[in-house]
Predict the structure.
Amino acid sequence: MSFDYARTKATADRLIKRFGSELTFSRETGETFDPATGTTTSTTSTFTADVVWTEFRKDEIDGTLVQRGDARLLVAGDPQIDDRVTKDGEEYRIIDTEPLKPADTQLLTIAQARQ
């Protein structure tokens, strides 16, 4: 007998939406080379996701893996390492992700963001 995670995902999405906010993420999706000018231009896509933005506790900050100012994000989506997210006019880079994905159903992603 397998557990149906659809209701659990719906609950997670609802709680993140209720207690978080919708933020815009950007991701470099490729590069285009212009032989006439010899320049390379990056192409970027953007997407929004509901996010609960939290700070790390003082005892979690080790100065290496977790630095002062890093944030822990609970995301109703699938951000990737090196994505950028903007909060309150400040841009952060996603430096680590941990999908919560039991039985092939992604409930949410826990991400670490750094300025």
In short: The chain has a mean pLDDT of 93. Residues 62 and 95 are 15 Å apart (CA to CA). The first helix runs from residue 6 to 19.
